[in-house]
């Protein structure tokens, strides 16, 4: 959608935001970690959680930057890249898991044994 409008991810217009976010979170996390904890000891777990969240957020922002920079914008793009990598490594393509079909049949049998109609369970709406 954005690519057609001309201001999309493909031109690098938003990629730098991911880099800035990652660097800012990493810098703030390192500063908070180096500063240590000062204050009421009852609040220490909250500060530890905040510092850990900064490091996790930094890694997530950097990952998003790498994905966007490499032209991966959708899940389908990532699946295609994985299939290409498997082909280059000489590995066979992935097949659909047959256990998924078995589990849906088992759940259908469980619903039937409980006296429920599987067709009705999919159309259930909360009031």
In short:
The chain is mostly helical.
The level of helicity is: 55-70%
Instruction: Give the averaged pLDDT, no decimals.
Output: 76
Strand fraction equals under 5%
- Secondary-structure element order, as H and E? HHHHHH
General description of the model:
The structure is a single chain. This protein is mostly helical and 127 residues long. It has 6 helices and no strands. It has helices at residues 2-5, 15-35, 44-69, 75-88, 98-113, 118-122. Helix 2 (15-35) runs antiparallel to helix 3 (44-69). The two termini are 35 Å apart.
What are the key terms here?
flat, 0% strand, 127 residues, mainly alpha, 6 helices
Outline the fold blueprint:
Elements: H1 2-5, H2 15-35, H3 44-69, H4 75-88, H5 98-113, H6 118-122
Helix pairs in contact: 2-3
């Amino acid at each position: 959608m954005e690519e057609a409008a001309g201001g999309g991810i493909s031109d690098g217009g938003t990629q730098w935001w991911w880099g800035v976010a990652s660097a800012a979170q990493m810098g703030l996390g390192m500063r908070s970690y180096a500063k240590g904890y000062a204050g009421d000891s009852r609040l220490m777990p909250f500060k530890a959680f905040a510092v850990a969240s900064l490091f996790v957020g930094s890694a997530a922002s950097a990952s998003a930057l790498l994905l966007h920079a490499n032209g991966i914008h959708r899940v389908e793009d990532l699946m295609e890249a994985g299939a290409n990598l498997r082909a280059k490594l000489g590995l066979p393509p992935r097949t659909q898991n047959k256990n998924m079909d078995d589990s849906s049949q088992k759940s259908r049998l469980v619903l039937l044994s409980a006296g429920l109609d599987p067709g009705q369970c999919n159309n259930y709406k909360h009031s």
